[in-house]
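Ticket #268: bound-state structure for MP5.
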Amino acid sequence: MKTALTIAGSDSGGGAGIQADLKTFAAHGVYGMSVITAITAQNTVEVRSVQNIDEQIIQDQIEAVFDDLKVDAVKIGMLSSPSIVTTVAETLAKYQPNHIVLDPVMVSKGGHRLLAEDAISALKEELMPLADIITPNIPEAEILTEQKILNELDMKSACISFKKLGVKSVLLKGGHLSTDPNDLFYDGENFYWVKGKRVHTKNTHGTGCTLSSAIAANLAKGNTLLTSVQLAKAYIEVAIEHSLDLGNGHGPTNHFYELYKRAHLMNQ
Ligand SMILES: Nc1ncnc2c1ncn2[C@@H]1O[C@H](COP(=O)(O)OP(=O)(O)OP(=O)(O)O)[C@@H](O)[C@H]1O
Ligand SMILES: Cc1ncc(COP(=O)(O)O)c(N)n1
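RESOLUTION: The complex was predicted; output attached.
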């Protein structure tokens, strides 16, 4: 059985964070494990409060997993504070896992900060170089590269800036541009457009979490980085297309559609 570990925050509403990651792993037939960095009191409308987990307990969770279980891929999401970023970077460096996917989560869809401003430099210097791939959206990439991204040409230039920052590869998500959500994958040498078509829905809570977990799940299964990105893009598109109209805000992506389809195919 292939396995994947998510290191991220908990979303009580179940649409993003650890909960989205574990659902994504399960939908890919990958055994999921979790290290919780922070607990958010959250629903589809808002983040009400955040409690960071003690750094020692974060370190203990990572060590408990790696000291006993096989980890085929790691996905990192919400890290909240500078000391949590450092704890995760230092503890992971000890184990050197095979594949690390870093989603540099900064702000929730509702506008609540999920990474303190003074944690950004630690994220750039300590964690980004450890990752095999980072998956920023456009606002996150603008902050990390300190440049404006207004079009597809700017996206290419931002990817090159990431390489200069020591990043191995980037999937720069184009969902925040007004065009179709075309993402740009840069492996440090070549550019690949991973194209999508926009689904007109407000139910996009947890899309970034889902995409990065799907990349990790596909890497765990032995796919190359490019194939993993392409498969993950196809997965998120279906998950958004069949997203669930739950709650009064941004509803969650649907991880069950693929599962039901697979179960249906197996019964035929
Ligand atoms: N409305 C949409 N229709 C189709 N694909 C979309 C849509 N919105 C985003 N995507 C795609 O979903 C994936 C996640 O991208 P997005 O830009 O939403 O991430 P994000 O802003 O980091 O998400 P989150 O806010 O959940 O962290 C990307 O592949 C993006 O192109
Ligand atoms: C615990 C946690 N992690 C990540 C996100 C980002 O997801 P979104 O941008 O869809 O709110 C979130 N809201 N909560």
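RESOLUTION NOTES: Residues 225-241 form the longest helix (17 residues).
TICKET STATUS: resolved
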